[in-house]
């Protein structure tokens, strides 16, 4: 895998996660909460698009909160379980792509 492919996949997963978070909260009748939950995902976009390794590193910590959200909602809300599992899978996939990009773009010594 090369850096360009992992960068595109990471940004695609980030946008998909934000869209699913907003859509799930709108479907539950809480559009403002959906926007508030997705807003932090917009912060790393410029750094991810420019390929800054530091942004990829700290975004892994940001995504951990969305993995937790997916886990909690999967267990606590049977009505929204499909949304929660989708959120969990996207967040976990994003986490893996962030780590993979960091490994692929590691400077050679």
Structural commentary:
With 109 residues, the chain is an all-alpha fold. The chain has one domain (3-104). It is 83% helix and 0% strand. The protein has helices spanning 3-27, 31-42, 45-50, 53-76, 81-104. α1 runs antiparallel to α2 and α1 runs antiparallel to α5. The longest helix has 25 residues, at 3-27. The model has no long low-confidence stretch (mean pLDDT 94).
Q: What coarse outline follows from CA principal-axis ratios?
A: elongated
Number of strands: 0
Separation, N- and C-terminal Cα atoms: 19 Å
The biggest beta sheet reads: none
Q: Could you list the spans in which at least 5 consecutive residues all have pLDDT below 50?
A: none
The DSSP helix count reads: 5
Structural class: mainly alpha
Element-by-element helix/strand order:
HHHHH
Q: Provide the domain count.
A: 1
* Proportion of strand residues: under 5%
Helix content: over 70%
**Average of the residue pLDDT scores:** 94
Cα radius of gyration in angstroms: 14 Å
Write a concise synopsis of the structure shown.
The protein has 109 residues and is an all-alpha fold. The protein has helices spanning 3-27, 31-42, 45-50, 53-76, 81-104.
């Amino acid at each position: 895998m090369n850096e360009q492919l992992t960068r595109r996949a990471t940004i695609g997963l980030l946008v998909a996660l934000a869209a699913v978070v907003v859509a799930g909260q709108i479907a539950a009748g809480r559009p403002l909460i959906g926007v508030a939950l997705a807003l932090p995902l917009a912060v790393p976009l410029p750094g991810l698009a420019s390929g800054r390794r530091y942004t990829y590193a700290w975004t892994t910590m940001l995504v951990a909160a969305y993995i937790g959200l997916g886990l909690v909602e999967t267990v606590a809300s049977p009505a929204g379980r499909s949304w929660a599992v989708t959120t969990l899978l996207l967040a976990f996939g994003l986490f893996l792509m962030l780590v993979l990009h960091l490994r692929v773009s590691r400077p050679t010594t």
